[in-house]
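User: I'm putting together notes for a lab meeting next week and I want to include a structural view of one of the chains we've been expressing. I don't have a solved structure, so I'd like a prediction I can at least talk through. The sequence is below, exactly as it appears in our construct file.
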Amino acid sequence: MAKMCNQIAIAGVIQGLSEALHFAEKAGLDGRDVVEVISQGAAGSWQMSNRYETMLDDQFEHGFAVDWMRKDLGICLSTGDDIAASLPVTALVDQFYKDVQKMGGGRWDSSSLFKRLRKLG
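Assistant: Thanks for the context. Below is the predicted structure for the 121-residue chain, given as structure tokens.
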């Protein structure tokens, strides 16, 4: 159950980081400079510290695979139904990972949610 809690939290963190980096790019900001500033405050996370550079460099051939994340999120969502836990953000991010799989990214790192946003424009 604790692992499910971890995966639920990570899914939201990665999506949030992906959106922040995508927003920075669209706003004409340097993503590295943005992370240098925001990582020192409440937004800081392991994902931010360890994945932002590979995300910005479009490198996803490492880490925890999207296929594995979808498997785990499926278990979380099923268990959530069983225990009447509402998981709307988890369900949404799971669908975003499905989009990444459709892009051929089943074995890409879970941080590839950023690649999905770049593809959307």
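A couple of points you could mention at the meeting. The chain has a mean pLDDT of 97. The longest helix spans residues 2-26.

User: Perfect, that's what I needed.
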